[in-house]
Write a structure and sequence with these properties.
Strand content: 15-25%
Low-confidence stretches: 1-55
Helix content: 40-55%
Number of strands: 7
Number of helices: 11
Distance between the termini: 38 Å
């Protein structure tokens, strides 16, 4: 997420805190009752968290709207492929809906990551956000212990009202190669009847595109080539059609598919350039490494030129998606 979003979020939180301070100050002469004052504070916090979710990430904002339309609480919540950002969002839900009387009440959370180092980072973030006592961060692989596969089974016997698969489908090929077709069957075991599963992802970048956008198609291919030459595995994104088909094969009912167009500026593109550069030390052949380094530098220059010539310094290419599926009772 861009620094602009972070700065805007920080300013909104500051404004909210200032508003709360003014509300408290204005009540010193008894003009506002304690109950009314608390309601005003809670309303301010609820409004600010909701605005932040929808402005900084339209996908999460859409999920909130979908959940509200169900009329059901979040209940016991599983973040099946957690990250710092989704963990922050869960913290915002706990901030707003921890009261059991709330219509969208969230009772607890379990966040799963396949990376031990990332587990420690997420646990530290959960403590920083003040939600560590409301849930837990687990490390493990969804393929482990499933259909005779090695390893300890994740979340054994645990059931959840709401499951979030936030950009999980694309990451599976890195952590559990060729497990994508079984992923939804595996996670669906933990969804209660009547529960909701939300999935987000990036539609695959096309082989080529018209105009300036084509340079980003080439960047992603060069990035993945570097990853493979470094003897690792790139993520593999999936289109909405594939995801919907496999959710339905699992027995889930897809009730909503929403897409959000992506725009790329040089800040976003350079993140992929850096990802390609980071693999160079792991390419063992000196000549091949030097060749790839040159290719990266040349394509980086093309990206800068393309963005400079594009209106507003950015171009449109592809989309992110949000899919909502329910488990019928």
């Amino acid at each position: 997420h861009t620094m602009k979003i972070i700065q805007a979020s920080t300013m909104k939180i500051f404004s909210c805190k200032l508003s709360i301070f003014l509300l408290l100050s204005s009540s010193s002469n008894g003009f506002i009752s304690s109950k009314r004052r608390i309601n005003n504070i809670n309303n301010s916090l609820t409004k600010i968290w909701s605005e932040l979710a929808q402005e900084s990430d339209p996908a999460l904002g859409h999920i909130e709207k979908m959940q509200e339309s169900t009329g059901r609480p979040y209940g016991d919540f599983l973040d099946a492929g957690t990250g710092i950002y989704s963990l922050r969002w869960i913290a915002s839900l706990l901030n707003r809906y921890s009261n059991p009387k709330e219509k969208l009440h969230i009772s607890s959370f379990v966040a799963v990551t396949a990376d031990e180092n990332f587990q420690r980072n997420c646990e530290a973030k959960a403590e920083e956000l003040g939600v560590n006592e409301s849930g837990e961060v687990l490390v493990g692989n969804w393929a482990a212990g499933y259909n005779g596969m090695e390893g300890e089974e994740l979340c054994k016997s645990k059931m959840f009202d709401t499951i979030l698969c936030d950009y999980l489908v694309g990451a599976v090929d890195f952590f559990a190669p060729f497990f994508q077709d079984q992923l939804f069957h595996r996670i669906n075991q933990h969804l209660k009847p009547g529960g909701v599963m939300y999935l987000t992802g990036l539609n695959p970048i096309p082989e080529k595109a018209d105009g300036f956008a084509d340079v980003f198609c080439r960047v992603t291919k060069l990035r993945d080539a570097c990853i493979l030459l470094a003897r690792s595995r790139p993520y593999r994104e999936h289109p909405t059609e594939w995801v919907v088909r496999h959710l339905e094969l699992t027995g889930l009912k897809v009730v909503d598919v929403q897409t959000f167009k992506n725009k790329y500026d040089y800040t976003k593109i350079s993140a992929q350039i850096r990802a390609a550069k980071s693999t160079l030390p792991f390419i063992s052949n000196d000549e091949l490494r030097d060749t790839m380094k040159k290719q990266i530098e040349e394509l980086d220059d093309e990206c800068k030129e393309a963005c400079e010539k594009s209106p507003g310094g950015e171009f449109e290419l592809g989309f992110d998606w949000v899919i909502t599926a329910v488990k019928e009772q």
